[in-house]
Amino acid sequence: MDTLTHILNGFSVCLQPINLWYTFVGVFLGTIIGVLPGIGPSAGIALLIPVTYGMNPTSALIMMAGIYYGTKYGGSTTAILINTPGESASVMTAIDGYQMAKKGRGGAALAISAVGSFIAGTLGVVGLTLFAIPLTSMALKFGPAEYFMLMFFAMTAVSTLAGKSPAKAVIATLIGLMISTIGIDLQSGQPRYTMGVPELQDGVGFVIAVVGLFAIAEVFSQMEDMTKGVRPEIIKLQGRLWFTREEWNLSVRPILRGGVIGFIIGVLPGAGGTIASIMSYVWEKRLSKHPERFGHGAIEGVAGPEAANNSDTAGALVPLLTLGIPGGGATAVMLGAFIMYGIQPGPLLFQNRPDLVWGLVDSMYVGNIMLLILNLPLIGLFVRLLYIPGGMLMALIMAISTIGIYAINGNPVELYFGLLFGVMGYVFRKVDIPVAPLVLSLVLGGIMEQSFRQAMTISGANPGIFVGSTICIVLLALSVLSVLLPFMLPRLKSWREGSANAEA
Amino acid sequence: MGVCYHPSPEEKRTMMTDRVIFVCTIVVAAVYLYATTLIPTLEIGDPLGPKAFPRLLGFCLLLAAAMLFVEMWKDRQTAAAAPAPSGPRDVRHLWILAGVVVWSGLFYAVLERLGYVVASAIYLLALMAWFNRGKWRANVVTAVLFSVSSYALFAKLEVNLPKGILPF
Fold first, then answer.
1. Cα B143 to the chain's mean position, in Å?
2. Cα B113 from Cα B125, distance rounded (Å)
3. CB atoms within 10 A of CB B68
4. How far apart are CA A428 and CA A173, in angstroms?
5. From B69, which residue of chain A is nearest by alpha-carbon distance?
6. What φ, ψ does residue B53 adopt, rounded to 5°?
7. Residues 6+ apart with CB under 8 A from B141
8. Are the C-beta atoms of A305 and A277 separated by less than 8 Å?
């Protein structure tokens, strides 16, 4: 009953004019960031952090969350009209969405994306509302050892599920952790790895790292494409911006299924929106009576994945809010923002600041309604963004990155750090080392080391404490499972294909 | 069926870069572990001290390098031994990107002296002149408008960008 009051009170927080305004600003910027190829939610949120210094934390977090789920709406527009995902989670939308646009059904594809996103996004928030409380009561039992194992699990899952090569992802994770150890050690007061550079005493700011690794590195990649003369073709949006009854009947089930898949994948660490949309696509294709239509403009192939990547964002907020542990890049950046405001998300936050938590969660219901309006009648406005010449856009993103980094401390030296991270991100991308695990571990590194040391202090330096409770053992088992999964899956797949061939 | 598998040039390149990553990882781990020994420790406070966690990380990175080695070894089995990639590669974009990095560094160097508005207008104009060639009027308008309006917007948000040589 108490919880219900908090949930309802959340609406009185998020419906305050100031918070409605920031919800709007967030989802509006999110749509723009989603539409623009070359800048995703992680970089978008990071760039805005300095701007939010003067704001009250609730409004700031409402705005950041708005950017996060708003990008998923915007990303589909780019995928459908220029066959490039505006945001990585909309890769699957590009396959059939672009084919639909070529056949003159672009309006229907955009409309079903917006409606599907809205339904699944709202479903996801309902899930978030329902799951948050039971998880927090469990999380209250967590000690430092359990927290350490939880972070260990999040990192292993991100490493092994994110990319093609688990080893490279593990390397990225460890490099992130190592970067997080730079600076003065808070417990002993000793400087570590600062090489005498005063700017490194407080450690490497994660905003600098994120802006460099995501925004600047992406600009470099796009500049490379431009130099090589890769130029996408924009398909003119024609026809009515709505779908036929038949198209709706084909889409409604994929939307609901995609919504459920997306939410579950979102809650689990590691996988994220891209995997959610791939799974939804594969599933819909398998369930379809006419799988041959997929890849040639099947509306189910747009509806399902779009729904999945939207409910994924709500799912991803579950571990972030209830446990204080993000499961991917964008939520890691949000955790960084929380910490910067002096707020530690987790079970205690639900007890101490229910207004903030539920104001944030409830703002997502409102934000999804706003996004539906922005992405249906006003979509034409955002489509124009696609006509901004790439060269111009890349230059502007560089300038915005500069402002974002400089605004933190007003120190030009940090701009060079940002540039360095940009080069690093570009190189990593070229050699297929994923950067999301690096950002996750960079943000979590400090807390992880702290809980490691606390646990070891409690146990008198006996590492047995990390397998000393049921929760720890379960988390360890899950970590091991996530390591083994990529090895087992191809075998499972080949086995299944083999049996399918035998049947045929 | 029964076709002998030959690695594509792309795959050969991946195998080459993987070797480079492998070596770099070991170097990073070694340097990091060495730097860990340089952290001064006072034997008070927590029993673990500031070195234990980093040391763990360093050894884990060595393990990760070993993991990569296993992956490379497996790839080799499927792709047969391949000689190092040869032949000319298009490196023009690398020179251009290096130029962008240097140009950005210059921008940062003069940012405080010239002020944000002037410095960023010049910075943007040059980038656009290269990457959005031939559209002089649009480029000049965008560069100037963006610099001035972003400065004003951030001033309003209480983020003070350097004003430099401009009086306001």
1. 25
2. 18
3. 22
4. 13
5. A167
6. -60, -50
7. none
8. yes
Q: What sign does the dihedral A72-A73-A74-A77 (CA atoms) show?
A: positive
Indicate the length of chain A as a whole number: 504
- Give per-residue pLDDT as tens, B67-95: 899 888 887 766 654 444 444 567 888 99
Q: Check CB contact under 8 Å for B53 and A452.
A: yes
Cβ contact A439:A42 at 8 Å:
yes
How far apart are the C-alpha atoms of A264 and A139, rounded to whole Å?
Answer: 19
ipTM: 0.87
In angstroms, what separates the C-alpha of B39 from chain A's closest C-alpha? 6
A399–B130: do the CB atoms touch at under 8 Å? no
Tokens of A310: 């939207």
In the block, tokens 């360890």 appear at A476
Q: Provide the token pair at B141.
A: 């308008």
Residues in chain B with CB shorter than 8 Å from the CB of A177 are: 57
C-alpha neighbours within 13 Å on the C-beta side of residue A215: 30
**Prediction pTM value:** 0.88
List beta partners, residue A184: A191
Burial A209-232 (b: 16+ CB within 10 A, else e): bbbbbbbbbbbbbbbbbbbeeeee
Nearest to B124 among A399, A412, A416 (CB): A399
Contact at 8 Å (CB) between A58 and A355?
yes
Q: Which tens digit of pLDDT belongs to each residue from B89-115?
A: 678 889 999 999 999 999 999 999 999
Interface with chain B: mutation pick from A148, A219, A227, highest number of B CBs within 10 Å: A227
Nearest Cα to A89, choosing from A368, A285, A302, A309? A309
Decide if A224 contacts A431 (C-beta within 8 A).
no
Hey, are the CB atoms on A170 and B64 less than 8 Å from each other? Answer: yes
Residue of B nearest to A52 (CA): B157
Residue B19 to chain A, least CA–CA distance (Å)? 11
Residues of B in contact with A168 (CB under 8 A): 21, 68
- Say which amino acid occupies A39: I
How large is the average pLDDT for residues A203-209?
88
pLDDT reading at B145 higher than 90? yes
Angle between helix A390-409 and B92-114 (nearest 10): 40
